[in-house]
Specification:
The protein is an alpha/beta fold. It has helices at residues 13-23, 38-47, 64-74, 89-97, 110-121, 129-139, 157-167, 172-179, 183-197, 202-211; strands spanning 4-9, 29-35, 52-55, 79-84, 102-105. The chain has 10 helices and 5 strands, in the order βαβαβαβαβαααααα. Mean pLDDT is 85; it is low at 141-147.
Amino acid sequence: MDQIKLLLVDDQELIRESLAFVLNTDPELIVIDLADNGSSAIQCCETQLPDIVLMDIHMPLLNGIEATKLMKQRWPEVKVIMLTTFNEVNQVVEALSIGAEGYLLKAIHPNDLMAGIKLIHRGGTLLPQHLAQALVQELQTPVSSNPSSTIDFQLTDREQEVLTCIAIGLSNKQIAEKLFLSQGTVKNYISSIYSKLDVKDRVQAILKAQEEKLI
């Protein structure tokens, strides 16, 4: 079994070393390098390409947002999870818009972090539910003062409901329970939504829905 190669980027040595110790306890994961700023992280990618980068946001020399942008331009196959102590919605939007696959707070339980890394490696996206909810609340404005989209994506009422559930971070199972549907039906609705919005995943769907004022 091939291990998932990780690069940890954080300007605090204690956090880097602690994360490395915890993550290396999982036989499916291996920390191949540590970096204390975004510039060093770029150099690490040059010499040994990781599968996933856990990226702090606030660092000297080159911050996590700028480092992620450069990584995605040069190595689009490298997946990036933003890992921070800051609960700021605008940074979530910026990180996702430049290609980050996930955004987590450092207070996350180690088991949840390891599970999240594996989810990202399988092609998923990761966003804490409370951050997703805050993101939607930030983006929403009263309907009366919010012009409707100039494009008719022909979403059905049920697809609109499912899209809203996606935007607040609900899983397929949670959407199914909330809307009294089977998980298979939810998957079909999501596939239809992706097709109509011309997107490939949940993050793109949320950003497209926000851009077109669908949520």
